[in-house]
Amino acid sequence: MLYAVAGTVLVASTVVTVMFRHDMGEARARLAAQPTEIFTSSYGDIQYRVTGDGPPVLVVHGITGGIDQAEAIVTQWRNLRPDYRFIYVSRFGYLQSAMPHDATVRMQAAAYRELLDNLGIDRVFVVGNSAGGPSAMWFAIDFPERINGLILISSAVPGPVPGPIPPLVAGHDFIYWAAVKAAPERLLGMLMPKSVIESMSAEQKAFAIEHAFVDSLPISERTDGILFDNDVTNPGVNDVPFERVTTPTLIFQAVDDPREHAGGLELARRIPNSQFIGLTGGHLLTGHATHIRTTNAEFIARHMSR
Q1: Which residues pair with 304 in a beta bridge?
Q2: Can you give the pTM of this predicted structure?
């Protein structure tokens, strides 16, 4: 009996190890296949990628992200048409971007400006997703002469701060991977209400889990950025002087998440030249990619000559 139990445990652990190594191998291959460059700014290295032609659009990713998550906003989530010159960037502490000493969200915005100077790009539209929202807003505040319009997609919002990602999970690839495999719907519950999850098809759930969680592997290469967002970015959104955002602004926010809905309305109330677009689907705004993409295209066309 004891040998049988030991054999079962050994087989199970071997299967888990093989699955983990397979998924980690795929994650590292995916990152390696994405051509990126490094710009050495006064704040340290900034990893970036520039693709496409058309009006320049700086895409700023959320928590657990990096340059790959920024690119996924266009290619997987399809919230923007592929008709622009995209500048994807890894924020402080993500992938190959440095974490400066005593970093602030406002410093991150200044680093964007240095990167654009290096690329010879005068003005951009800025898309801020989730924890990328605050630095996008600070860019609009500090460098209004460099921005045509601001697009916030499920941005961090003022009000109660969401629960942080536990450092143990954020710092260890196997623990993070095991959590994704063992309790994917529980993780989805961090991003959207139970009612939304229950209304999703199996395909929608699989898509969300794959691109919101699995694609964040290896999490260990994003740990410094996640902890920065936990401790600085998300709490600090309450200190952003929203009234100083004078550029035209689109705000896409979930109406079926009470915290995000209230915070999005507060953003719209305090940002002078803004338009609030409330959508269902929780933090991922599931099911609205076409509407978001069309609205963004109209917004960019309207303001690109500023």
Answers
A1: none
A2: 0.94
Q: Are residues 57 and 146 in the same domain?
A: yes
Task: Locate 184 and state its tokens.
Answer: 């994917």
Q: Domain of 185?
A: 37-303
176-202 pLDDT, tens digit per residue, is 999 999 988 888 888 888 888 988 899
Residues 126 and 19 in one domain: no
Query: H-helix or E-strand containing 200?
Result: none
Asked if 200 and 282 touch (Cβ cutoff 8 Å), the reply is: no
- Give the angle subtended at the CA of 104 by the CAs of 99 and 109, to the nearest 5°: 90
C-alpha Rg value of the chain to the nearest Å: 20
Tokens coding 242: 């929203």
Is residue 222 within 8 A of residue 90, CB to CB? The reply is no
pLDDT digits (tens, 9 = 90+) for 229-253: 999 999 999 999 999 999 999 999 9
Residues 15 and 137 in one domain: no
